[in-house]
Amino acid sequence: MVWREAGSALVGRSSELGRLVGVLDAAASGHAGVAVVSGDAGIGKSRLVAELVALARAQGFAVLTGQCAELGDALPYLPLADALRGAAGDSGLAQAIEARPMLRRLTPGAWLDSQPAAGSGLTQQQLFGSTLDFLAEAAAGRPVLFVLEDLHWADRSTRDLLVFLSRMLQHERVCLLGTYRTDDLHRRHPLRPLLAELQRLPSVTAVRLGPLDADALSDHLVALGGADARAIGDIITRAEGNPFYAEELLAAEGLPYNVANLLLARVERLSEPAQSVLRAAAVAGRRIDHDLLQKVSGLQDIELEEAIREIASRGLMLPDGDYGYAFRHALLQEAVYTDLLPGERARLHSRFTRLLDSPAELAYHYLAGHDLPGALAASVAAGRRADRLGAPVEAHDHYDRALALWQRVPDAEQVAGIDRVRLALLSAAAAEESGATHRAVAQIREVLAVERPTAEIWERLAYYLIDAGDDAGAVEAAKTAVHLATEAADEEDDHGPADDQAERRQVKNCRAALLARSLATYARALVWSPQHGEVEQLAGRALEAARASGVRDAEASALITLAVVADIGGDRQRAEDVLTTAAAGVPSGNLSIDLRAIFSLARVQYDRGNLADAAATADRGVDLARETGLTWSNYGTDLRFLRLLIHYTAGEWEQAGELAAGFAARVGRLPEAWLSGYALFVEVARGDPIVEERMVWLRPFWRDPLVSYISRTLAAEHALWNGDPRSAMEHIDAVIAVLEPFDPGMIRVCATGLWALAELGQHPPRADDQAKADDLLRRAHQAATLGPGSGTRGAMGVEGRAWLAKAEAERRRAGGDADPAAWRAVVDAFDFGSVYEVARARWRLAEALLATADRDEAYAQWRQAVDTAAALGAAPLHRALTDLGRRARFPSPSKQDTTDAASSTATSSPSSSAALAAPPADHGGPAVSLTGREQEVLALVAAGLSNREIAERLFITHKTVSVHVSNILAKLGVSSRTQAAAYAHQRGLLP
Q1: What global pTM score does this model have?
Q2: Longest C-alpha distance within the chain, in Å?
């Protein structure tokens, strides 16, 4: 039977298609979405996707399609490269790709001669950022459908890219669609963690394809040409709802074979040349280009065309775009490949090694063809290419494979073109860049165990141990590196003829560069250690050696370390000067260090209160990150957060809010959790509804000290704004448990805890609460003065000093001491440009002034705070100020001339103005005769407050409260406070 493709509409999948169309429509309207289609082999995933692609194209979508291949992790970003190649015919997409060098690297014929100015980890972040930017630009003109097929074969870098895009795409008109085979997913399959991560995202729609029912399968077979009802019934029974199996049974005229034999039976009906072509194609994978197929088959043009036509007529392999051919189903390719004899398979793989130029593909075919020297050389080349593409996981795998082959290949160093130590260092570097720092450390220790130790090996071990958090191990490793590098630098090279002077100078310069890097790493390792006092001298030596040998990365690293030392010592002017030098020089050759220098400079400028300078420096760093595709790198995100913080501090909340909106709330990885936490600064202060959602997603990451510090401290503020000081204290206690005692952030944490204690305070204060308050203030002072090593720290920056002043003022408030002088000090301390914190301090100052009967000045401070809160959109603060104004009976700002608010604040007398809030609505009965103040007192009586507490709350005397209570009892006709409270509840008199 000649195979023919079904011409009928898609059958039996209307529900599944409807769900996918829903995701597609949402993307078209500006809500990016992800759909994952799963099912057993042959169940109809590709047919369903083809239907969706046709619908998307009819609606004006740009469609990108990428296919994964069964080569393991050998070829990084294969489906992305496939999709980019397919986009070449679309001029708009092609221009967008051409404008992004990181994407150009993946297109056919791309030249990867130059090593990027970043490790493969940063290069990967560049590629991710470029891909996101490319999709966003394409979607600005028309919606985009990006299909990734056969994810069960996806490489690690592709899987990471899919997770990144799934989280970062929010309002772009993009729909991501992936497919995978469920029957291929064993318990430890690498796709399983990705699927679990995606399933947590509300934007992800999972569509599972089950077997077709009998009616749908019958319709499908009839559309394919089936006419015999009995045969169709038999096929339906045996196919068990699998449409591909049913198609093969129909084509084989119902022969009783299992799936593999069924497929091979159709192959065996081909002529010998056609079978030969099919076997060669199966070795290549599911797809193969025409020219390559001709070369590997050895057939002439006419012979190949006849063979291909015969194969296509049987529906075994079909034309695939303009590039070549593809097996109609992956099961066909697998069956043909598995049926090859061992010798036949090895010979075909060897043929491919003479025809291909991709190192990763060569490594795969050399290994399959049992050519170990070829596999070693190709694996090293594939690792280098993966490094340059920004695929550190795949680079590490290739290097590791080369190391595994090393002992089995004679003259391995000559074959590989690299010595074993250098290869191991490359493998460790790739492991560290991929986040497997423990693997990098283990690999370096293995090298130290079998090779002659060198300063370079020890320096790399120290570098990785710093990242792994093994401070003691890092110090010892770095110390050894400096010792060996110093010995090597002092050696005299007297051997050799005089005409080798140039080579000897080069060797001497390399040794000097290694010494510079070793010293810089040693200094960095000691910064937070008990040997902190040695850091400045070591960093100075590193700087001198780096400049002498022209090693820019070591020079920048040493400058940054010197700035950290100056910052800890309180000499921020020197820190800023040193960092200005580090950030203003020529590029170091290491983008990570360049961004780190710019970020550190902006942070020091911020700490000094130079907000304008800090903003300009941060903008420069953000621009560099964007230009180099590192917007989503660690320092790229740090710079954007710092820019948000500067906007927030300067009162530019619209800009801060725009940045915060770009930090996804639905996080699944630690760097995303850091960013989401940063967004809480402005969102908690505005009382945005998204705060609760962010908190839910951040909760699993609270074990991380940085996430805990940022999100839980702000969660405490959120709880305080919502009247829950006990929850606030729980958050504060949790943060204190994970922060180092010398961390400057501890000051803000303790100040917030003291705020919570003041809200919890009893009158008179309880002894245990006062002890807790004393402990919090002690911790705040300790963080302001305690430093690493010697245990001392220089003067804090302006913000640190302001928070310490606030902690001291809150301690007084927690003890029942309304001290205007303490809160004036807080206002003055935050007046370096921190608009919101000045307003919050004025709120407390107004309260303190009221308690000391200075109503005019209290009103002036309150009015300024109200104006600021309104301008910022700080809803929680504005509500608190409104409540204070009501209790103090200040005139409502809305009743003043808003065109001259400052003048009104200076001249108006609050005692001569109308009350802020009107009395409650008339509920009938005696309540009609209660004054506004009496209704306020009644509400507080019903809440169980004593006369003393009511007096403090309303800023009136104890005697005045007694008079109001007596009047209330008389007007309500009751004899006790309890009866008054019950009456008020019964009559609905309480607000």
Answers
A1: 0.74
A2: 117
